[in-house]
Automatic annotation (TrEMBL):
SUPFAM superfamilies: Fibronectin type III. It comes from the Eukaryota. The keyword Signal applies. Keywords: Glycoprotein, Repeat, Secreted, Signal. This is VWA1 protein. GO terms for cellular component: extracellular region. It is found in: Secreted, Extracellular space. Residues 1-90, 92-180 form the Fibronectin type-III domain.
Amino acid sequence: NRLHAVDITSSSFRLMWPELLSQETGYYTIEYAPTDYPARKRTKQVSGAHTSLLLSNLAPETTYEVALIPESNIHYFPPQTTRVTTLAEEITPAQVFISESGPHSFHVSWGPALDSVLSYQILYGPLPGNSVKLLEVDGKSNSTVVENLAPNTTYLVTVTATYRSGKEKSLSAKACTQEGE
């Protein structure tokens, strides 16, 4: 029943701690900073009724020093500390799959699906050639159908993920349409 972290991702974790205070008897101060950069300390306060708090907007693959300071007007509680290391950032698209290919369309899907992606752009155009079309889909989607294509043609398909942080990551695959009737 000590301070500990659960649901650890590349950019967040949830702190859990035992019930030391109540709404009436005080509040908690949570201080956290990357162990390599103690000067980047951030502080949050929550009421004494809380026994958990989600910390987000964290750096991936970083160890944080976290302190829980119970601020009570009745008892003294020593601060509790823990260290939590965030996970490496998952990158999407890590794979692009082409399926259900017909003469005029094919299905494009990709993975993994991540919460940190805002949107995906699907660029596609025949090879060789430089006429490229763009399709944009929501960050929650992980597949789309590309239509109005020429039969018996090889297309280059590039899926680009735009992250909430502004970063982008692209992956390409080739797709061939079937011969027409």
